[in-house]
Amino acid sequence: MSETFQVPTAIVLRRAAGLIELGELVVDGELATFPAARRLLVRALDELRGLPDEHRLGRSASLLEGEALRALGEWEAALVPLERAAEGSRGRIEAAMGLGWCYKRLGRLPDAIEALRRAVKAFPDQPVLHYNLACYHSVAGDVAAAIDHLTRAIAMDGRFRDLTGTERDFDAIRADPRFVAVTVVTV
Fold first, then answer.
1. Measured between alpha carbons, how far is 84 from 57 in angstroms, rounded to an integer?
2. Which distant-in-sequence residues (6+ apart) come within 8 Å of 168 by Cβ?
3. What's the confidence (pLDDT) of residue 32?
4. CB of 129 closer than 8 Å to CB of 142
C-alpha cells in the first residue's frame, strides 16, 4: 500500500508566491496578460487549489489567490479571496490594496474607497494606503479628501510626493492650489 505524500503548506505557499511574482513581472497592468504570465499565474492557482480547505481559505493563501486572479484581470473573481484576506483587525494591507485595485477597475469606486478606509482604520501609519485613498478620492471628485490623504502620505514618507507628477489619478485636481501646495517642494 503506497502512501500519498502531502507537500507542506508553507512550501506550496512559497511556490505559489514565486509563480505569481514571476507572472507579475510580465503583466502589463491594464493590458491583456501575456501567455507566459497567464501560464505562471494559472499554475499558482492550481498549486493553491491543491491545499486542504483549512489552509486554502486562510489569509495567506487567500491573498495569493486574489493576487493571481487580479493579475489575470479576473477582478470580480479576485474580490472573494481578497476580502477574506483583508477582513478583521489582522487583515493584510496587500489585500486591501488589491481590493481597491479590483473595485476601481470594475467601476465600483465607492467600494474601492471603502476598502481602503477600512484598511486605514486598521493601519493608520501606512502611507501607501493614504496615497491610494487620495488617488481614489481624486478620481471620485472629492478634492478635500484627496488632499487630506495625500498630505498624510507625504508627511509619513516624502517619496510619495515624487509619484504625484506622473500619477494620472491626480489629473483632475492637478491645477487645484491645494494640490500644488502639497506637491511642490519649495527651497
1. 8
2. none
3. 55
4. no
- Give me 37's grid cell: 504570465
Q: What does the pLDDT read at residue 181? A: 94
Per-residue cell: 5: 505524500
Q: What are the structural domain ranges in the chain? A: 1-106, 124-187
Q: Which three cell numbers stand for residue 120?
A: 486605514
pLDDT value of residue 28: 58
What would the grid cell of residue 67 be?
A: 493576487
- Cα–Cα distances in Å, from 118 out to 89, 147, 157, 177? 9, 19, 21, 29
**CA separation for the pair 55, 77 (Å, rounded):** 19
| CA dist 115 → 88, 96, 112, 120, 121 (Å) | 12, 6, 5, 9, 10
> How far is residue 86's CA from residue 37's CA, in Å, rounded to a whole number?
25
CB 93 within 8 A of CB 119: yes
pLDDT at 11: 92
Residue 37 pLDDT: 87
pLDDT < 50 positions in the chain? 1-2
Convert 31-66 into a string of H (helix), E (strand) and C (coil).
CCCCHHHHHHHHHHHHHHHCCCHHHHCCHHHHHHHH
Answer whether 0.85 is exceeded by the pTM.
yes
Predicted pLDDT at 35:
84
Domain 1-106 architecture: Alpha Horseshoe (1.25)
